[in-house]
Amino acid sequence: xxxxxxxxxxxxxxxxxxxxxxxxxxxxxxxxxxxxxxxxxxxxxxxxxxxxxxxxxxxxxxxxxxxxxxxxxxxxxxxxxxxxxxxxxxxxxxxxxxxxxxxxxxxxxxxxxxxxxxxxxxxxxxxxxxxxxxxxxxxxxxxxxxxxxxxxxxxxxxxxxxxxxxxxxxxxxxxxxxxxxxxxxxxxxxxxxxxxxxxxxxxxxxxxxxxxxxxxxxxxxxxxxxxxxxxxxxxxxxxxxxxxxxxxxxxxxxxxxxxx
Length: 260
Ligand code: FPP
Fold this sequence. Notes:
Strand content: 15-25%
Strand order of the largest sheet: 5-6-4-3-7-8
CATH class: Alpha Beta
Bound molecules: farnesyl diphosphate
CATH superfamily: Decaprenyl diphosphate synthase-like
Radius of gyration: 19 Å
Number of strands: 8
Number of domains: 1
């Protein structure tokens, strides 16, 4: 298979297609700052953010990334001014309606995680419609985190597991991290291999706290609307240089590679 090449300024970026992350998760931050720097409204920043979403979905699909999770709206984002929340919901609905055919054509399956019942009814209906229409897509899974909060998700999972313990469906001695993962809304997907956060903030902001335990982190000062395909390639190149040890030693990891 050919190497994927991109450019960051004058620097060539090289990606090994055999070592791609299977699952990339992104905290898309900085739409507001991008807009402020250009003396535009925050909504314009979110609109530009959607263009970046399109480019990154396309790049991941072209490269062969199996899962892409985008943090599009956090449970804390409901606290923003109603005008901004309404605009984000409108943009989300428009994005879904506009992208539907493209997702089907490119065999991309849409999924969503989060407290989806809090979404306005017309957004929720559109979302479930597109999820249904794209369900046969088997080239990539695009997961939108909407009204999502990791602590909320962990509490929900703990309650479901407690119910199964109380009713004897499972026994205490069977409880392992893997079993608990099965109660999370992300249970159908592997944990992310790479987390990208734009706009330079060094925090997880209540995103996939359980699932990111061994994920490689890539933080860039670039604001989300300016995040290009080439910057994505650079993040993947950086990821490919890292050694993922999952708590083991370097020698153990080399031994595992030698056996496989
Ligand atoms: C963070 O920027 C971004 C958000 C809260 C929303 C992200 C939404 C989009 C990119 C558009 C909708 C997404 C999809 C998938 C249709 P911020 O507003 O927190 O920026 P700031 O920190 O600079 O103020």
